[in-house]
Amino acid sequence: MAVTIDGSGEINGVILPTTGFGKVLQVVRATDTTQRIITSASSVDVTGMSVTITPQKSDSTIILISVFTYDIATSSGANQYGRLQITDSIDNPISGAESNLLGLNNITYVNTGSSYGVVNQIAYDSPATTSAITYKLKVKSQTTGTTFFILNSLNTGQMYAIEVSA
Questions:
Q1: How many distinct structural domains can be found in the chain?
Q2: For residue range 24-40, what is the model confidence (pLDDT) as tens digits?
Q3: What single-letter DSSP state applies at residue 152?
Q4: I need a labelling partner for 75 at 20 to 30 A (CA). Which of 61, 86, 96, 141 fits?
């Protein structure tokens, strides 16, 4: 059969698949414009960097995106290590099935001073529920004497939860 376009712009002779395409059902966005200072060696929530979504379908996938500016600094001369991770509301790491490193950033800076940059994280979850779920950013300083700055006062920090149908 030939593919034709009639005078109304309709395409004739093309059969498109009706399954296999995900559809974005909703997007939830949170923003934060406050600088946060973290010196804790334990993972702590980054206030303002959380998003709550109520999935419309229990078989949906939630794509999570986190974007923010950071600075990690020390005066001790030791190597600096910081850890940033997207978790659910009860602190389970959200990483997806393929890798435990999605949605996780380990930042290392060698020398006295500071390291500055922008972090873009992406992760996904298949929560199998239609109940509200909160996702959040957690951070910890992994080296004594290291201070971690979340610089949302310079560039607005953002976190997205995007529900995609199966």
A1: 1
A2: 999 999 999 988 888 77
A3: T
A4: 86
Give Cα 163 to chain centroid, integer Å: 13
Residue 1 in any domain: the answer is no
Token representation of residue 139: 């951070």
Tell me the C-alpha distance between 32 and 39, whole Å.
20
Decide if 146 is inside a domain.
yes
Nearest Cα residue to 45 out of 87, 17, 104: 87
Is residue 78 a part of any domain in this protein?
Answer: yes
What are 156's two structure tokens?
């607005």
Contact assessment for residue 151 and residue 35, using Cβ atoms and an 8 Å cutoff: yes
In angstroms and rounded to an integer, the radius of gyration of the C-alpha atoms of the chain is 21
Structure confidence at residue 132 (pLDDT):
92
DSSP-assigned letters across all residues of 83-113: EEEEEETT-PBP--SS-TTTTEEEEEE-SSE
Owning domain of residue 108: 30-164
Any domain includes 2? no
Helix, strand, coil percent values for the chain (each to nearest 5): 0, 55, 45
Q: Is the pTM of this model over 0.70?
A: yes
Measured from the Cβ of residue 1, the count of other Cβ atoms closer than 10 Å reads 7
**CATH (domain of 146):** 2.60.120.760
